[in-house]
Amino acid sequence: MPASPASASSDDGAVLVGVPNWVGDGVMAMPALQAFRRRNPRACIVVLVKPAMRPLWAMHEAADAIVEMHAGLRPAVNAVRAADCGRAVILPNSFRSALIPCLAGVPDRRGMAGHWRRWLLTDVVRPPSEPERAHQVYEYLDLLAPGTPAGGFEPPRLNVPESAAMKAQGFVASLAAPRIALLPGAARGPSKQWPAEHFMALGRQLAGNPGASLIVLGGAREADLCARVAKGIGPAGICPSGASSMAEWAALLQACDLVICNDSGGAHVAAAVGTPEVVIFGMTDPSRTAPLGGRCRIVQSDGPCARAIPRDDPEAIIKLASITPERVYQAALECLAGR
User: Fold this and answer.
1) Widest Cα–Cα separation across the chain
2) Distance CA 55, CA 301 (A)
3) Beta-carbon neighbour count of residue 97 at 10 Å?
4) What is the pLDDT of residues 182-200, one digit of tens each?
């Protein structure tokens, strides 16, 4: 059986790492790549990403090279074959993510079973079962850095480009402190979105005390939502139009004193740039997907949790709406006070 990429010498060629296709999952995978880099300082790590994820991984120090996985099976296979990697570690659990390095002829392919793909792998890893290792980060660590104990990893780190950081600092310099970023969107839709009206009410409270500036941020698909929330807050609500890239978005989060957001990719980016945050959870389980790094305050509804829920699950929407603006406001004040 081939030696696993996590333990073999890194002197025998490049290692392909197929990373998740969502921002939040990508950030949660970063501690595993950081751990692999520490164990294999001379390794050439080739990160396989969808084009939309390239700007995120361009800010991560572990990637020596980035290969884009464009639409269509043949272009993706050709891109992986051209990278000339002797080993592949496949972090996503999808069938396609394992099929591509297999068809590209990568001889050693390590990943977790599931989705009818066991036959595509040469080294199958079982998911962690210990309660203290329930967080999703341990799935990635078991693939890239097996044996990592509970709590024995470095949190994710993003290096914001200096040009983006300077632009963000220039933007917030004219705003009244504290500067608080509000992220009302979530890629998974209404089941993970605290009501926009709650964000508006919260913003008005924070604008009154402690007199905060509220910077409402989101992706291109959330532009209308962000503009509506900012308008509902009033004069203290700001919806910048210049944060058009992932680097500029991360830089703005880094320049703020606090981030308040849903369980979303933005929550993980905020953690990776070191900004304190309040994250609002409904039915999703923070023990599995909470942002890493120790500067996150969770506010959650009562009741059972689930790992995956439909985009428009009525129960999830109701549970999120049951979290009052006052609860989140008090958590925000405690974070601003350093508690």
Assistant:
1) 64
2) 33
3) 23
4) 999 988 788 999 999 999 9
Reading the block at residue 67, the tokens are 């290969």
Residue 215 to residue 226: CA distance in whole angstroms: 9
CA nearest 143: which of 87, 93, 89? 89
The conformational region for residue 293 under phi > 0 = left, psi -120 to 50 = alpha, else beta, is left
Q: How far apart are CA 129 and CA 141, in angstroms?
A: 13
Structure token pair of residue 185: 């969107």
| Tens digits of residue pLDDT in 119-148 | 999 999 998 889 899 999 999 999 999 999
pTM for this predicted structure: 0.93
Domains, the chain, in order of start with CATH, read: 14-144 (3.40.50.2000), 162-336 (3.40.50.2000)
Please give the structure tokens belonging to residue 69.
């996985």
Q: Which of 157, 98, 152 is nearest to 130 (CA)?
A: 152
147 exposure class (CB count in 10 Å sphere: 0-12, 13-18, 19+): exposed
Report the distance separating Cα 224 and Cα 228, nearest Å. Answer: 6
* Nearest alpha carbon to residue 282 among 250, 248, 308: 308
